[in-house]
Write a structure and sequence with these properties.
Belongs to the cation transport ATPase (P-type) (TC 3.A.3) family. Type IV subfamily. By secondary structure, the chain is an alpha+beta fold. A hairpin with a 3-residue loop joins strand 21 and strand 22 (about 520-525). Helix 30 (about 900-940) runs antiparallel to helix 32 (about 965-970).
Length: about 1150
Amino acid sequence: MVQTSKYTFYSFVPKNLFEQFHRIAYIYFLLVLCLNQIPQLAVFGRFASLFPLVFVLFVTALKDGYEDWRRHRSDKKENNRSALAFVNGRFEPKRWKDVMVGEVLKVQADETIPCDIVLLRTSDPNGVAYVQTMNLDGESNLKTRYAHFETAAHIEAEDRRLEQSSISGKVICEKPNRNIYGFTGYAEIDGHQLPLGPTNIVLRGCELKNTTWAIGVAVYTGQETKVMLNSAGAQSKRSLLEQKMNRETLWMSLFLLVCCFISGIGMGLWLKRHEHELDVIPYYGQKYENQYKYYGKVGESIFAFLSSLISFQIMIPISLYISIELVRLVQSYFMIRDVEMYHIETNNRLQCRALNINEDLGQVKYVFSDKTGTLTENKMEFKCASIFGENYEDGGDLEDCIASPDRKLVTEFSCGFKWKPKVRVKLDPSLVRVLQDSKNILQRTPVHNYLLTLAACNTVVPTKVELSSSGNLEMEVAIAADEGVSLIEYQGESPDEQALVSVAASYGYTLIERTSNHIVLNVLGENILFDVLGTHEFDSNRKCMSVVLRCPDGKIKVLVKGADSAMLRKVSLSAGSMHFGEEHKDRVFSSTQMHLEMYSTKGLRTLVVGFRELNATELVDWQQLYAKANASVSGRATLLHEAAQYIEKDLALLGVTGIEDKLQVGVPETISGLKDAGIKVWMLTGDKQETAISIGFSCDLLTHGMKQVIINASDKQQCRDMIKAAKEAYVLDKRGRNQTSHSGAGASHSAIDEQRNGPKSVNEPSLTSRLMDFLQKIKHSCSSVATSSIESVTSQQGHILALIIDGNALVHALENDLEEELFDLATACHVVICCRVAPLQKAGIVSLVKRKSKDMTLAIGDGANDVSMIQMADVGVGISGQEGRQAVLASDFAMGQFRFLRRLLLVHGHLNYRRLSYMVLYNFYRNSVFVLLLFWYTLYTAFSTSPAITQWSLVLYSIIYTSVPTIVVGIMDRNLSPQTLLKYPGLYMSGQQNESYNRPLFWLTMLDTLWQSLVLFYVPYFTFIHSTVDIWSVGSLWTIAVVVLVNFHLAMDVEHYTWIIHLAIWGSIVATYICIIVLDLLTDDESLVHYGTIFHIAATATYWLDILFIIVLALLPRFIVKVVKLKFKPADVDIAREEEILKH
């Protein structure tokens, strides 16, 4: 049974409460709540004191419970699905949750696999099954899985019996693990031991396609299936703003303790001063046998301290946590519904998988990007080929051959085949001539082996595409016996393989049938069967793939293709192994290397192709190694590697393939915009250095004016020397480098100011008069602004620096004693490109920047090799691409294409950061001004914590009276329109510079809070000090005054009014009046003392004049500071906002 839910009916309450109380603030409020239950310390009513914490816990539990209920509902639906299990001699329906390990299951076409099963038999005579793994990794192409011939024959024999009672056998396999690409085991059938590997197992969640039925034995079920072992929720991360908020919360807690300490000491000193009057002072009289429970000066001081702690508890805004979560949720909804980030081709919207780091999108300084599938489309197009030292790339599309003199040759060649690939590729007439010239053996033989390798050395599945009677295209498995001209479409695990097989088919080497034991190729119109003796699939260590074929003439050929770094070491230059004369070997090898470098310079993905023939002795030796490896359960990967190494040597060099992976739409514009926004973009790729550099120029990451610092080192000392030499040669401005690398905010801001206006002076003209000059300069010099703001160092010739380093050098550079040097050099450069890097090296680079700097990092990728990098970064973004969903599942945000990153950061990131930053500051202000009002009151009441404000108003202040406007403004307000933010990317730097939330701004806000609290208290105090108005009436005035004041404060800061914001702000004041009227009409014992007070005091003109005077006097300093700042020292966003106002 599968269970993805977190709670059960009995564990929900304790487990959820345990999780919620991980927040320190909740523990603080629980402590305060417990103290308030002590009669001597009770400041609020016992029930009223429970409300805030219980409300917050209840709302959070309600949200968590609803999410878990949805998981329970999904689990129930999944567990109760039906499967066919072999019971009592026949297949009967059985619920998925009841399927046990060892049971034999039958799956029909288009059904989902209920658990991890080892195939025993399929409807295909050769034991082939085709599965779609979209639910597992997001890939829609078909994968091939095989049942052993022996198991299929065994079950078939059982079928022939009149009374089939059992299917017997044994499967020995590894323990359940998370590796979805690996499986090791063996089956024992009729005394035979059959090796089992990844091609024999079908995982839970896959769908059976193009296969009528398949029978398998369950090896892993329920929670032990590989997909369930890999299932995990979104990463739990804390935003930088939340970390800073915790720091300010600590400061506020210390300030709260100081206030409480003053109240306690003050109480003791007051009692000491009036010690001889205590017998006659009300509530202290000792002559009445201590009926008022007087505990002495020390005891009363302690009680005063604890009572103050309870009374001033809202200094720590508990409602802020709920408010922030709600605002983040709605922000995520707006991001998801943004049609500008909707990818029509794949029907993908932005996904927000982590709701607690929305604001981090507005402070990103470093973007680490994968190349293939992230910057490029991962849709491969074959461009050119190097065969036998000859370059073939002068091709044209078949439809474009009309004007070509070779049109007749190419058309007759391509139209003469029975099988045609669905994907049309360019044909080179000169290569067609070689294939048609049977006399030119010297060139034709290498071309034959080259195309044979492209067609056979892969794992693609050929499928036949036909038009059904209903007019729809239908796809079914292709077999060589099919009659008539057929259209072939190839389903493969890699887009590279699909492209290579398609180009081989276009030249007449068409793969038309694949089984576990043989393949059939249509070679220039003739079907030829090749026996497959074994396959060594690609792995990251060997960096190549090989297949061993027995040809019709009895020859044994090993066909190999792989990365040049691995393949060129396996090539033999002896004339015998090269299969051509001594006079050609040097020319072929040097020409191939030249073509390889040329293709890489063009930005093409390259593979080297080679082959060799095995003699009888070598074949027997390899078969023994291969059989031993397949029969092993432990250490199989190592044994297979040894078997592959035995035959992947002394290869004859056939040539090189050049495949173009086109850039995605909008990538150059996006990278340019990110650079203008002050963001450094680093490209981390596994491709060749030349390819990475070429793509860097194509996507506007590199420019021809940059000085490239290239570090390729094979040993540690060489790496150390090269980094040291680069620093000495190019890193001249140490002060500038340190300033940008470690405190880039100030450098960026000053650069913008200088670019925009030159030196500032207080006698400058008005903001409006300077606006047009700024707009013209920032519009025409955006790139130079970003360059001057980001760039930290230049070379001796004044070039901007770009660091290019390979994976071999990074092995040493990321070690502890060299990483500091690497960090200094890398952060001093404008651009960094890391090529030939492994997945863990990607994560290591991100980790290095995170540890050595305080800047925000973002990693974006689309494949499983990007997962570690995505999880390591502060913000991880996954691309829903051609390489599956592993990156999406590990990410915080997921999108359809790289170009959407520009809008995500520059628009949503900027707005989210400003909104939440202001929301945090405002909540601290809102609660502090209320607490300070209560504190000033205690100074005039013998430090008693009995407030003039009603208990319910104290509780409802931060929950109902003032919470809604905060949330609405946090959701709806914006300082600039998306058009302006995209037009001027440099405005994004305000987030990097922490303009909206920083320590000086926090303390300035607290200073303003102090002033406003003094105005709040003393205006009514001096107004009514000699009147007969009671304290409860003044308390009603204070309640209304503080609510009106904080709402006017909020209204002054709103930058984009909507009717919803108006309704929230002014409606909050109306709601407060309604609540006070209702509370003043209550007649219970606790409420009777302030019965009807609002009606008496509100009937006087002094009441309304006091409120007006409080608003004007309290907000006047803030208003003056805002006007002066806009007049004499406006920020970039202020000037851009002025432009918007003038346009409207």
